[in-house]
Amino acid sequence: MENPNPAPSDRAPIKLNMVGLSKKDYDGAPSTLCKGCGHNSIASQIVQVGFELNLRPHEIIKLSGIGCSSKSPAYFLGMSHGFNALHGRMPSVATGALLANHTLKAIGVSGDGDTGSIGMGQFKHLMRRNVRMVYIVENNGVYGLTKGQFSATAEEGLQLKYAGQNEFPPIDLCMEAIIAGCGFVARSFAGDAKQVRELLKAALSHRGTALLDIISPCVAFNNEDDSPKSYGYGTKHEQPLHELGFIPYAEEISIEPMQPGEFRTVRLHDGSLISLRNLDKDHDPTDKMAALQRLHRAQETGEFITGLIYYNPDRPSLAEVEELDTPLAQLSPERLRPGREKLEQFLQAYR
Amino acid sequence: MNVLERQQEAGYATSSPVINNFSLVVATANGTGSQTANLTLLRSFFKMGIPVHGKNIFPSNIQGLPTWYHIRVSHEGYIARKPSEILVAFNPATVAEDVQELPAGGVCIYNADLKNLPRREDLIYYPVPVSELIAGIEVPVKRKPYIANMAYVGVVAWMLGVPLQVVEEALGAQFDYRQKLIESNMEVVRRAHAWATEHLRKQDPYRLEPMNKTEGLIIMTGNEAGALGAVFGGVSVAAWYPITPSTSFMDALREFLPKLRKDEAGKPTYTVIQAEDELAAAGIVMGAGWAGARALTSTSGPGISLMAEFVSYGYFTEIPAVIWDIQRVGPSTGLPTRTSQGDVSFAYTLGHGDTKHPVLLPSSIEECFEFGWKSLDLAEQLQTLVFVLSDLDLGMNNWMGQPFDYPDRPLQRGKVLSAEQLEALGGFARYKDVDGDGIPYRTLPGTPHPLAAYFTRGSGHNEQAQYSERANDWEGNMARLARKFETARSLVPAPVTLHNSSARVGIIAYGTTRYAIEEARDRLAPQLPTSFLRLRALPINQEVRDFVAAHERVYVIELNRDGQMHGILQTEMPEYAARLRSIAHLDGLPLTAQWVQERLLKEEATL
């Protein structure tokens, strides 16, 4: 058994959350990624968020495609079912799994190659269908497992030892998501643990697909300080859009006093609230064109903006469109097979 | 000498009528609505109690290219394709060729507006003055061409002696009993019939007489039957990408599910998703099967090419799902609207690495229905992908059949552990062969137990589903998968065998080639008695081996170029490789009995 994590023992001072689990219960297997990989810090934040939000591990599924990023679901939430799919095909698998049981919470982890190249079609169609899940792209602009080729999100003109110079413009996954109809589009930086955590919490409450494009530097193949997806560059050029504070609905709502004009509060579908500090005064996350313009501007100035870039909670999720009620995976045999008389009756029209 | 005298001279006088035994072909242009007229004829004959079958030979085109509809009636019950004696010539583009193909003494019913009708001395001609017959009928301009086709229905009814009341009943079924449509169409039929009665003299020998051989039977397409089977098999997630000739499978599923599978509150117990391509369709059913839904997709050859990566994945990770492949002619785009059995060897071992999949081989609408529900059972029992290989001929054409038998067993959900079972067992290992049948236990996401979770991966794994590159883990797992496939032999539908004690020659076939073979066997019986084994699934069981052992020579007859099933059987039974002989052929059309007969005799003569 992979990390069976028996119920917490009574060897006291372990802190338990509201569902009786310790933070350790949200761990996965030990990571086999490189030391210092941005992906590992994202995995730690997922563990932390699971603990803080009192998630029941059996109600979560974690999915991924192929690549370094896609290995990481093994390194968190060991008590949740995991599905390491095919390269670029996680979106379709997630769609199917969540049609079978739309009451599950899904966390998908993909990479820039997995999403931006081989999986672009499935990525766009997942957004278009608004499948309810958190879709994390651990974005480092490079193919790590095959030793350093450019991915489609690599910056034009970027110079790497193995691959030489990148001649093509990058695909901005946040822009692609907005255009495809995604209602929760955020960008963050793996080094900014607090922001990653807050965005994750908000994303888990969104009623549709929530995209977190997290710049996650590759320590082995794309960490030159002048590369926009390196730690050095990230810490210097990160431009937070908002400060986030997330208050789960289950708790009493108490937020810091808001300065008029500085905060924007958005009620999430499940009733929980997300409050945003609008550092970039002219950015309104509910304005689609403004979001696209802001991304475009950032691309031109070589910065990456972080925070919730676009938010629209109004589109129904796929499960809602399909009017799913009892999870299809849990239907009783009587509801799956009509009675004998139904067959006889039906065939009358074919006589 | 008039036609009648010529006929008498040629020896096919009207005095010896040919009753309930002929083929008729209707030649029209695609998109002119002739399908309604053709199905009206088919249903009329069926309602007269005469065994009948129709085959639509249509183009990959929306409008304009030629299409032929073949109807065979046979009092003996033979329904294989047979060259036609009667032609309804309504397509100027093909009329020259169509007329040439008729045998001497054949009948040509033609649209009198045709300018280029070839005249043959040895044929009987009946005109249909279409423009005259539809003049003044009140229908929207758009529907004029549709109505025009009803004119030949009237003349054919006159020629064969089909009561107009029967035509009206057939039309009713065709138009879902919408009175206005029935009336305007029937008006044309009546006018044409009256015109023919007044102006034509029957000179041909062909006639229909009522029988009782279709009593209690139904008539349906294979795709409809398969979809209905899936509905009763509890399909809950279906995903697909449109492709001829499988599209009508999903059309039927989407029509039937709302009628049969809404719960008391009117909520659907299913979902059908049109995916962005076949890759995604396969991914959706994989995800759904993994999470505990009964999942299927339907496609055709080009689709399973795209699905190959998920099929390899599904084999290795052991996820239940069903793929219906309605075969058309490949390779490549091939002939999208013609039939074949060309995907057999591809489907059987689809995927990179060592992969094998159960393949069900329906030959009739009854089997489409049965395999429709059974495939979903097998997928979950075996925790693997199951292919159902139908073909365009079966899937898209209307066939007679017995009303379907209700499933004779409850839904088989396979080895799925509940939270209570996990508690009692103290955990489980996802890929461990506990029962010795190669089939492990699984849990579904959402199972409320801390020991329920496991990690599904297409990479090397051990019994606990943990990542492993160890040599013995790899080999042990693959050996277990092979063992599981052995278990499949006894679970998949067994073959149907007709043993003939005096036969030294056996025939093995599968799917829709059976109709030509059954007719050929009857015709050959006096000179070449044969036994017949009809495969209904792969992998084969002992019965197939015994059948081959009991005959000196066994011909494997199939509708592809390379003898794909022949190759599979030789590999499965190397000890009988020399005894198995291939008769294979593919031109896009269903086999005829005559071709089977001639090929068998030729093979036997050259021994």
From TrEMBL, chain A:
<protein>
    <submittedName>
        <fullName>2-oxoglutarate oxidoreductase subunit KorB</fullName>
        <ecNumber>1.2.7.3</ecNumber>
    </submittedName>
</protein>
<dbReference type="Pfam" id="PF12367">
    <property type="entry name" value="PFO_beta_C"/>
</dbReference>
<dbReference type="InterPro" id="IPR011766">
    <property type="entry name" value="TPP_enzyme_TPP-bd"/>
</dbReference>
<dbReference type="InterPro" id="IPR032686">
    <property type="entry name" value="PFO_beta_C"/>
</dbReference>
<feature type="domain" description="Thiamine pyrophosphate enzyme TPP-binding">
    <location>
        <begin position="66"/>
        <end position="214"/>
    </location>
</feature>
<dbReference type="GO" id="GO:0047553">
    <property type="term" value="F:2-oxoglutarate synthase activity"/>
</dbReference>
<dbReference type="InterPro" id="IPR051457">
    <property type="entry name" value="2-oxoacid:Fd_oxidoreductase"/>
</dbReference>
<dbReference type="InterPro" id="IPR029061">
    <property type="entry name" value="THDP-binding"/>
</dbReference>
<feature type="domain" description="Pyruvate ferredoxin oxidoreductase beta subunit C-terminal">
    <location>
        <begin position="277"/>
        <end position="320"/>
    </location>
</feature>
<keyword id="KW-0560">Oxidoreductase</keyword>
<dbReference type="Pfam" id="PF02775">
    <property type="entry name" value="TPP_enzyme_C"/>
</dbReference>
Automatic annotation (TrEMBL), chain B:
<dbReference type="GO" id="GO:0047553">
    <property type="term" value="F:2-oxoglutarate synthase activity"/>
</dbReference>
<feature type="domain" description="Pyruvate flavodoxin/ferredoxin oxidoreductase pyrimidine binding">
    <location>
        <begin position="229"/>
        <end position="391"/>
    </location>
</feature>
<dbReference type="InterPro" id="IPR022367">
    <property type="entry name" value="2-oxoacid/accept_OxRdtase_asu"/>
</dbReference>
<keyword id="KW-0560">Oxidoreductase</keyword>
<protein>
    <submittedName>
        <fullName>2-oxoglutarate oxidoreductase subunit KorA</fullName>
        <ecNumber>1.2.7.3</ecNumber>
    </submittedName>
</protein>
<dbReference type="InterPro" id="IPR002869">
    <property type="entry name" value="Pyrv_flavodox_OxRed_cen"/>
</dbReference>
<dbReference type="Pfam" id="PF01558">
    <property type="entry name" value="POR"/>
</dbReference>
<dbReference type="Pfam" id="PF01855">
    <property type="entry name" value="POR_N"/>
</dbReference>
<dbReference type="InterPro" id="IPR019752">
    <property type="entry name" value="Pyrv/ketoisovalerate_OxRed_cat"/>
</dbReference>
<dbReference type="InterPro" id="IPR029061">
    <property type="entry name" value="THDP-binding"/>
</dbReference>
<dbReference type="InterPro" id="IPR050722">
    <property type="entry name" value="Pyruvate:ferred/Flavod_OxRd"/>
</dbReference>
<dbReference type="InterPro" id="IPR009014">
    <property type="entry name" value="Transketo_C/PFOR_II"/>
</dbReference>
<dbReference type="InterPro" id="IPR002880">
    <property type="entry name" value="Pyrv_Fd/Flavodoxin_OxRdtase_N"/>
</dbReference>
<feature type="domain" description="Pyruvate/ketoisovalerate oxidoreductase catalytic">
    <location>
        <begin position="31"/>
        <end position="193"/>
    </location>
</feature>
